[in-house]
Amino acid sequence: SQTIHQWPATLVQPVGSPLSLECTVEGTSNPNLYWYRQAAGRGLQLLFYSVGIGQISSEVPQNLSASRPQDRQFILSSKKLLLSDSGFYLCAWKGQDSGNTIYFGEGSWLTVV
Amino acid sequence: GQSLEQPSEVTAVEGAIVQINCTYQTSGFYGLSWYQQHDGGAPTFLSYNALDGLEETGRFSSFLSRSDSYGYLLLQELQMKDSASYFCAVENYGQNFVFGPGTRLSVLP
Q1: Minimal-distance CA residue of chain A relative to B50
Q2: Are A91 and A34 in contact (CB under 8 A)?
Q3: A78 to chain B nearest CA, in Å?
């Protein structure tokens, strides 16, 4: 069966510090991968998505970046965090045989102080 | 542009039936999905409609009208554990999944 893992689960970072969130998917090949952000009590904002290794599409211009160094690995990064980067970050995947459905990881709570 | 609209809040009592509506405007459309999210947790998949009509899964049903760009999630025999946020989502031709703002459902005893 397919699983998705995302870490760290929670982190508190000072303004101006770097960020790295990692997500891996198991049990599937060539998945579409997604990074979403959710502010407290709000909806899901698509940040990046990838249809293959090294292929990244950005939906919202900001100080975040994403990379896909391996087929089932998706990384969200920032060189310098802003207070407005605080939120709940969710990685998601869609398999070639999972229909038109995406599945989410456990999420990462980021608080920038 | 792309947008989905949902009511922000819905309140109902245990055992009742509630309908959460979703209207959408997107660049391309493959289907409408529904997700449930409890406080502090990740969204979990509930249902998917690609064609017009009603899909039933236990206490939950979902409806789609492609001509009206409209769908709804129907929750029957409400239970306290159904208190959560519910999101509709559309997959567009860019293989993006665009989510609605979410509807917070409160189930009262």
Answers
A1: A100
A2: yes
A3: 22
